[in-house]
Write a structure and sequence with these properties.
The chain is of the alpha+beta class. Helix content is about 35%, strand content about 45%.
């Protein structure tokens, strides 16, 4: 895979995210994908990632904007920086109560790519900033 192909794959992944197309997102991932959740556990496999997406879709409505994607020359690694605009719909375990609060925060993700698919997704955002925004 080269840089352009890697960038296109990540762009397709995020286009599916913004369209609410979970099957499309999953199609971008390798069967043994590793998912490092922001300030959380590491999960492995498409089933776990699909369950994560389902939980997120029940609790949050999010779109990403100002997405900037970078990839290594060999297409084996990529990163993305973006702004998450969202609404907290339903209380998530261990977090403050949801009351339909809106939020907007910068975030980033790192990817490993293998055989034309995403084999690792690691997402980062400032949880303390998110909590401040929804507790207003």
């Amino acid at each position: 895979m080269d840089r352009a192909t890697a960038t296109d794959l990540i762009a397709r992944y995020y286009a599916c995210f913004n369209a609410g197309d979970s099957p499309g997102m999953l199609a971008c991932l390798s069967p043994d994908v590793v998912h490092d959740i922001n300030q959380g556990d590491r999960q492995e496999g498409l089933l776990a990632f699909g369950a994560f997406l389902e939980r997120m879709n029940e609790r949050y409505r999010e779109t990403l904007r100002d997405i900037s994607i970078l990839a290594s020359d060999d297409g084996r690694r990529a990163s993305a920086e973006f702004i998450v605009d969202g609404t907290y719909l339903r209380t998530d375990h261990g977090l403050p109560d949801a009351r339909g609060q809106d939020y907007s925060l910068p975030a980033g993700a790192f990817f490993a790519l293998d055989r034309g698919r995403i084999s690792r997704v690691t997402v980062y955002y400032n949880l303390a900033d998110w909590i401040r925004q929804i507790e207003r």
